Structure formats: structure tokens, C-alpha cells
Amino acid sequence: MKIFTFRVLIKSFTLPALFTASLLSSCNTASTTQTATDAAADVEAVAVEAVTVAAAPAATAINRNPEVEETLWNQHASMKTTINSSNVGSMALNWKYATPTPVSHTPLVDETGIYFGDWGGTVYKVDASTGKLIWKKEIEKPQTMWPWHGFAGTGTLGEGKLFEASVEGTAFALNPATGDVLWKTRFTDDTEAGNLSTLLYHDGLVYIGVSSVEEPMTGMKKDFKPDFQGKVVALRASDGTLAWERVLVEPPHNGCAVWSSFALDPDLNMLYFTTGNNYTGEATNMSDAIIAVDAKTGQVKWHNQVTQHDVWTKADQKGPDYDFAGGPQLFVADVNGQPRKLVGAGQKSGIFYSFDAQTGEKIWSTNIGYGGIDGGMHGEASIGDGSVLTWSNNSYVHTMPPDKVKISVKKLNAATGEHQWVVNHAQPAAIVPGYLANDVYFLGSLDGTLQAYNAKDGKQLMTTKVPAPIISWLWVDGNNLYFGGGVPGMFKWADKGENGVYAYTVKR
Asked: Measured between alpha carbons, how far is 252 from 232 in angstroms, rounded to an integer?
């Protein structure tokens, strides 16, 4: 089940971002760093599943393009920022832009400003240095009776346009200079379906994951019968017309929502995404899976299902509800001494999986924390310098105050999944990915706790408290860290108000 999901930004290439709405009290400063050996004895550290890996398929040499890796590969990391372990301690709030409704839309950054949308259906552009409003446009009428609505997902930039897609099922292209709508189009005929994912732009196409509010509606409307079929659509950036769509489940089956983010490999011409559970009836083979398709046609190249028989709704909780809450991420690692291009993703089971990007062959998997409806991994890892940095909730339930359940933070060897360090009980529960800035790994919690860890050893470098739950991707640009916050109605434990976008800056 997906409680929310938001996703993010990007500069000229475009990335995706996601938000899970289900799932922060005082700063937690008692984290304990452990070595991988010490962690083996901890109840939260589970051994890596090693896989006998076949030789890499014959292919040309792997092209390493840093610009592509920081954008299309969805790595949630940057080595270009000026933020590092020596100056992050001076980071402080620079500005906040307040909005009337929550912001789970990750801030999108370009050289002229920052773009984001809120749950009220309004899109904004503000100055990156001061937070001063440049323009705002109300472009969608939200279905406020739904558990999430408006622009709970994240748009993207590309081709001189700002692209947004609403929970209500309409996609828009806006003029970044003025906010004027250039085109709009319905991307689904299902009245309860729309976007909760992070959009991705590449080479003339805008990719949108289609999800639904039907799963929670089964608990809101008596005898409600889900009929949603998950899919991915590709719209032409020029005019919003449909280039292709890939339906993932056929009637009478349902579910398989796509509510996280995308990764794309231009060399392999493959688009990668992950799926959620089925809703009712029998499970299908593309639920709880990572899928690779032809980026130009949507033809399925391979898919790998990691959890079978996962059928779940609010009203009928049969399966474990182990959606992929994290989107795919591409990276290169030396597997058995040979460079391999891999794609990984984190699941609500608490397990991070790694596959061969070309064939879908499983390479390794490892446990990060305890799974659950609001447990496990709720977002992407951060990948850099041969390592995967990630975190997991431990059987958290979003109706609980976040400080009641602390997350586990782990650094993994990207080639093997072995633990390099572990910080257990690190900070309150969270629902968004962290971000790796050089040697600093940032994480944000639902009670507003923002912490930074040294990527080399896991030691805490900085902690502060934001006056709102952190509910969007964290994003770094220059010496700034940006994110959205707010209080969705399902967070009954949270103080109301304090919706908006925050900018934290290293003080030089």
C-alpha cells in the first residue's frame, strides 16, 4: 500500500521524486555507529543473500557519464556540491516559503529559480537564494476528500518546459518563466487514478507512473470494489499527446500501481520502474516487481518479481503490502572482478535488491530493517563511491508519533551488498529518501528531525529540527539543501500548519 509518495527535481536533465503518505519530536543525538562485524550481532542486521552470478553479457564498454549518472540514473547523490563533512556543521535555515497545503513535491532547481507544487493544486516558482515568490498558478482543482490530492507527486524540467501531473489525472506543461499553461492532457480515463510518482523527462518524452486512491478508498466506502490497472504512460513533451502506454495488469485483475520514480539508461535504451501490490483477487506476476522497458516504445525487456501473492487493500489485508516504495537506481559495480551495470531498489519489506541492468538477473539482496505497511524502505538509496547508503523504518505505523520507532541507517558495498557500517536507532521514522552530498549523508524524519552523517563511518555531523514533518525528497544544489514539508490529515499526532518549502544553507 502506498501511503504517499513524492519525488523530485532536477536541473536540465530531470529526475523523479516520490512521496509516501503514511508514515518525526526532539533531535535524536544518541545514534551508535557500528562496524559491519559488530552489526552482525544486532537483531536489525540481517545477512546478505549472496547469489551465484553468471558472467556479464557480452556488451560494449560501460560508458561513464557523470551528468547522466547524477540525473537519469536516479542516484540521489552529488559530488559537485560545496557541502562536505568539514562545513556541514555550519548549515542553518536560510529561508522558508509557506504554503496553505502540504508540499511533498520535491523542489526542482534550475538557474532561474525553484519550482514546486502543493496539495492544493497550485504550482510555484521562488528565488533560490531568498525564497521570494516569482509566480504561482492554481492549475488543478484537487479532490480534497481523497487521502492525497493535488500535486502530491513531483514534476520535472525539460525541453524548456516545466511538466506536472496531478493525483486527479491531468498532466500539464508550463512556461517556466511565467507559469502559463502551454498544454494539458488527461493521461488516464480512471476517475480514481492519477500521479503520485516523480516524473522523468528524456529525449522528447515525459514518463508518468499511474497510481490510484482506490486502495485506501476500500476502507472509506462500504463495499467499494477496486478496478484500477496500473500503468506507465509516455507523453510527447511538445504537445502532451500519448507516445505509448504500458498496462501492467489486465481485467479482472487489478492493482500494480507505479508510485515511485524512474531511472533511464540511454545506452541500453531502457526505462526502469517498480510496482506495488495487487488489490483484490489473484496476484499477477508484475506486482511487487522491478521492470525494464524500451524507453521509446514501452515494450517489456525484462521484469523480476520479488514478492509473490501480495494482495492487499485497507479493507482486506491479505498480503504483506510490500510495495516497492523506492524507484530503480542505476550504478556500476565490480561484480566478481568485472564491471557490471546494476539496477537496485528498496522495498517496504525492508530489503534492498540489486539486478543486472541489461538482463534482470538478480545479483544480491540485503535486509536494511523490519518490513511492514509503513515499515521497510520508503524511498530511494543514495549511491556514490562504490557504496549504497540507505535507511529503513522498523515496523512503523503512520498513526504513531515518529519518535516511537527509530530508523536503521546502513552503508552497503555496491558490488556485494555487505554492510560497511550500521547506525541503529538513528533518528525518528521517515518516509522520504536521503541525499549524499560528497561525504555527507542527509536524512529527514517525520517529526522534522534533519540529520547529517559522515558517509565514511556513520558518525553524526549535524542535527537540527524543522517545524514540520519532512515529506519530500531532500535535494542538494550548490551549498543549499532544499525540501518540502507539511502536515497531511492522516498525521493525527502532528501539529497543524507549517506547510511549505525549506532551504538550509552552509554559512561560509
From this structure: 19
Spatial distance between the Cα atoms of 90 and 130, rounded to a whole number of angstroms: 18
Inter-residue contact 140 to 118 (CB < 8 Å): no
pLDDT band per the 50, 70, 90 thresholds, residue 52? low
**Grid coordinates of 67:** 551528468
- Kindly report whether the peptide bond that precedes residue 328 is cis, defined as omega within 30 degrees of 0: no
CATH class of segment(s) 32-51+64-506 = mainly beta
Q: Are 478 and 81 in contact (CB under 8 A)?
A: yes
The cell 506507465 sits on which residue?
232
Query: Bridge partners of 340?
Result: 333
> Whose grid coordinates read 558472467?
55
Burial class (CB in 10 A: 0-12, 13-18, 19+), 205: buried
The 8-class DSSP code of residue 54 comes to P
Residue 215, SS3?
helix
What pLDDT, in 10s, does the model give residues 268-312?
999 999 999 999 999 999 999 999 999 999 999 999 999 999 999
Q: Provide φ and ψ at 36, rounded to 5°.
A: -60, -35
Per-residue confidence (pLDDT) for residue 60, from 0 to 100 = 57
> For all residues of the chain together, what is the average pLDDT?
90
Does the pLDDT of residue 41 top 90, yes or no? no
Residue 268 has a CB neighbour count (10 Å cut-off) of 17
CB within 8 Å of 52: residues ≥ 6 apart: none
pLDDT, residue 238, reads 98
Q: Residues 119, 151: contact at Cβ < 8 Å?
A: yes
Coil, helix or strand at residue 300: strand
Contact assessment for residue 486 and residue 104, using Cβ atoms and an 8 Å cutoff: yes
What type of residue is 154? T
Count Cα neighbours of 470 within 13 Å in the Cβ-side half-sphere.
33
Share of the chain above pLDDT 70, in %: 89
Is the separation of the CB atoms in 237 and 173 below 8 Å?
Answer: yes
Q: How confident is the model at residue 47 (pLDDT cuts 50, 70, 90)?
A: low
Per the structure block, which three cell numbers stand in for 318?
491479505
Distance CA 494, CA 24 (A): 9
**pTM of the predicted structure, to 2 decimals:** 0.91
Q: Is the dihedral of CA 242, 245, 250, 255 positive or negative?
A: negative
